[in-house]
Amino acid sequence: MLALNKLHHIAIICSDYERSKKFYTEVLGLEIISEVYREQRDSWKLDLSFQGNYLIELFSFPNTPQRPSYPEARGLRHLCFEVDDLEENISMLKEYGVEVGEIMIDPHTEKRFVFFEDPDHLPLELYEK
């Protein structure tokens, strides 16, 4: 078994850098650690943190192919954020024009959760504490 310490970061490639930057910083409230334009790759790299913990690397690359995002596609299924109040956060997402699915209940934990998407249709989840 590997001797892992913790999850270091999640890398996401977006189609519209400014739109995704705004979503992850203004809608989700992640904080910018650093932002670098890598001229040789025509690519932006934005390092984002949540509550002081490095969390997401947001990349832009020219002409990236679309990825299927239906619920049971192979690969990373979704990213999930824990919240204290599900309705409050759903209301805030809707204020930003983000479409939100129906509230569901986890049959194993009996906790409530809901799905929504980032600007490139990456599935995201809010899970009530």
TrEMBL record:
MF terms (GO), sorted A to Z: metal ion binding
InterPro entries: Fosfomycin_Res_Enzymes, Glyas_Bleomycin-R_OHBP_Dase, Glyas_Fos-R_dOase_dom, VOC_core, YwkD-like_dom
Pfam families xref list: Glyoxalase
Domain VOC: 6-129
SUPFAM superfamilies for this protein: Glyoxalase/Bleomycin resistance protein/Dihydroxybiphenyl dioxygenase
Keyword line: Metal-binding
UniProt KW Zinc-finger keyword: no
PANTHER family attached to this UniProt entry: FOSFOMYCIN RESISTANCE PROTEIN FOSX, LYASE, PUTATIVE-RELATED-RELATED
Record's protein name: VOC family protein
Organism: Flammeovirga agarivorans
